[in-house]
Amino acid sequence: MELYCKVFVHGPSHDQLLATVARSLDGQVSRRSVDGGGLAVDVLPNDDHDETRAAQGAGDFLYFPFMLEVEADGDDDEPAFVTAVARLLDGLGAQGYDFVTAGDVEELLPGRGRSERPTP
Question: Beta strand pairing status for 39-45 and 33-36?
């Protein structure tokens, strides 16, 4: 299994999302990236963002405004990676973000890597 995934996120601003990711992982911010909690996370604008389609809910998650590129930070331990990604997603959910995870790991995550609310 590749220890990498994308998380498509619907939320208000890049800066707020970056801060939430850093808090969730007890991580350090460097420009648009966060390192911490066993993960390296790039917080990126989604080039395919389309607010009209994103507002239709998780079915159109590819159009959410932000994308997290998440990879293991030096450790090839699959259970540790799954736990760290779950911690990240818990932090996003606690702040009210809608998200959908895409990658090999999604089936191993609580809620299959999706926020509980079906629409942003």
Answer: antiparallel
Q: In what order do the strands lie in the sheet with 28-30?
A: 28-30, 33-36, 39-45, 66-72, 4-10, 98-102
Q: What is the pLDDT of residue 75?
A: 75
- Where do the domains of the chain lie, and which CATH numbers do they carry? 4-113 (3.30.310.180)
The predicted model scores a pTM of 0.92
Residue 52 in contact with residue 62, Cβ under 8 Å? Answer: no
Distances (CA, A) of 92 to 16, 74, 104: 11, 23, 20
> What is the tally of helices (H) and strands (E) in the chain?
3, 6
Smallest CA-to-CA distance from 38 within 92, 74, 69, 5 is with 74
Tens digit of pLDDT for each residue in 82-104? 999 999 999 999 999 999 999 99
